[in-house]
């Protein structure tokens, strides 16, 4: 299964994605404002790979003039339904449908990995104004929480994908892995968590691309067994999902 197919797999579960995926903590947006030395209010922001609009809504809530860019038809429809006053255009980070120098900030929430940095970095620089910034971030699992680390490893084995390293890359390696070498990059990490029901947690897992490309019977079998494990470990019916948001902010050198 290639990267493009996995990226497009979200369209089959757009409503599930919108309902179950975690948002992002307010301190993340504080970090963006601190690094750029300007408020988000009034900033011209393009949220690329916007999906169902999770990050788009937060940026708009800070007063930014947000435009959502999303390649998937179903995901774009969910974004428009949730945020009818936000323009949604079809496109992706490798060929942005935006004018030169038209934005102050370009954001990629959980979506940079679906781009080719050899194309998406020049595109971002083309669209950004002279003092503009590129912000990319991910909700990453807190692997210092034992049950989350074990679950991640089970998921990787079941889906036939390489598990993420439990050791976070240092700053230089994070920049290299993101394809941002040659830019001026600032990194921040923000820890946060949320409590959710088993249903919400399992729906979140099931909305990941590694699961979405499996057939329905295989998805159901894993999630049924995982529910049994959760009941044994957390008899009250809720879990705390712990995350570290990893933020990279890049500007021209």
Protein model, in words:
With 253 residues, the protein is of the alpha/beta class. It has a single domain (3-141, 166-195, 241-251), classed as Rossmann fold. It has eleven helices and seven strands. Strands 3-2-1-4-5-7-6 form a seven-stranded mixed sheet. Helix 2 (14-20) crosses helix 9 (198-206) and helix 9 (198-206) packs antiparallel against helix 11 (216-233). The mean pLDDT is 93.
Unreliable parts: none
Query: What class do helices, strands and sheet pairing give?
Result: alpha/beta
CATH superfamily annotation: Vaccinia Virus protein VP39
Q: What amount of the residues lies in strands?
A: 15-25%
**CATH structural fold name:** Rossmann fold
End-to-end distance, in Å? Answer: 36 Å
Report the CATH architecture.
3-Layer(aba) Sandwich
> What's the alpha carbon Rg, rounded to whole Å?
18 Å
Query: How many individual domains?
Result: 1
CATH class: Alpha Beta
Helical content band: 40-55%
Order of helices and strands: HHHEHEHEEHEHHEHHHE
Shape, per Cα inertia axes: globular
Major beta sheet summary:
7 strands, mixed
Number of DSSP-assigned strands: 7
Mean pLDDT: 93
Number of helical stretches of at least 4 residues: 11
